Amino acid sequence: MLAPDWKDYRILGSGDGLKLELWNDIMLLRPDPQAIWKATVDYKKFDCHARYERDRSGGGRWIVNKPMPDEWKVSWRDMTFIVKPMGFKHTGLFPEQAVNWDRLGAITERETARDKQVKVLNLFAYTGASTAVLAKRGANVTHVDAAKGMVERAIQNAGLNSVPQGNTRFIIDDCKKFVMREIKRGKTYNAVIMDPPSYGRGAGGEVWKMEDDIYDLVSLTAKLLKDPIFFLINSYTTGLQPQTISNILTLNLPCGKVDGYEVCLSTEKTNVALPCGCSGLWTVR
Question: Fewer CB atoms near the end CB (10 Å): N or C, the chain?
Fold first, then answer.
């Protein structure tokens, strides 16, 4: 599924393990492990502002080629988000997720038009693009992420989009521990988004590995559901197929509709779609 309606974001070229992007008027060259085909453009002919170079340790750094702001803004439809080159080649925004903003936004608008409250639990919620999109469309979103800096950026993105403060709650916490506490408190939600990392370590040394832990986390989180509307899982773990995500949802949720799909971005002036990850979406109908 191709992300729709981007005007402030374009992929000018992809291949040879890289993608050349234009974020508003800032051009970046970043590694992309899925772009294993021959490059669709000659990268050397483009005067990019910065490129991300990996080092032998597995990390990397941004190499700035010409003056550029530390951060800037891009827009998608009626939404505006902050972009900032950060560690691990990230920019603070995943434009391919516009596929899911579209789908979940439409569900939220439909339900709120029926005067139904949409209570969303957004886990591993990062810089809060999904939080802002759904809260602006009438959902009450509890945004949870363990990284203080990411939650602070999510609050900025919400403010930038004039999201009603009463529609959001921002929590800095370990997502699994938060879910366990919410179960004990008797709290309920009728929608869930989770975007867990491939690998991570908690403050107490706990190890998270997507393939080993995602099923149990979905089973646990499903206990918070009451009158469920949707449950979305995003994965950027290489090799984890959409059907695998669909199976996990099917086994943990009541009868409904389950879709598994790749989220992709188009490469300009070609028929190449760059795969960026996969999603599984359960809906009540």
Answer: C
For residues 34 and 276, is the Cβ–Cβ distance under 8 A? Answer: yes
Do 154 and 131 meet the contact criterion of CB atoms below 8 Å apart? yes
Is the pLDDT reported for residue 263 higher than 80?
yes
Query: Is pLDDT above 70 for 9?
Result: yes
CA separation, residue 96 to residues 93, 102, 185, 262 (Å): 9, 11, 35, 10
What single-letter DSSP state applies at residue 55? Answer: -
Q: Which of 204, 195, 198 is nearest to 128 (CA)?
A: 195
Cα angle value 215/130/214 (rounded, 5°): 10
HSE-up (13 A, CA, CB side) for residue 105: 16
CA distances from 143 to 159, 222, 241, 251, 269 (A): 14, 17, 26, 25, 37
The torsion angles phi and psi of 148, rounded to 5 degrees, stand at -60, -45
- pTM over the 0.90 mark: yes
What CA–CA distances, in Å, run from 142 to 22, 121, 237, 269? 32, 5, 25, 40
CA atoms within 13 A on the CB side of 119: 9
For residue 251, report the phi and psi dihedrals to the nearest 5 degrees.
-80, -15
Please state, rounded to an integer, the average pLDDT across all residues of the chain. Answer: 96
Label residue 84 exposed, middle or buried (CB < 10 Å: 0-12, 13-18, 19+).
middle
Residue written as token pair 């990397």: 60
Q: Considering all CA atoms of the chain, what is the largest pairwise distance in Å, rounded to the nearest integer?
A: 59
* Cβ neighbours of residue 190 closer than 8 Å, sequence gap 6 or more: 117, 118, 119, 225, 226, 227, 228, 229
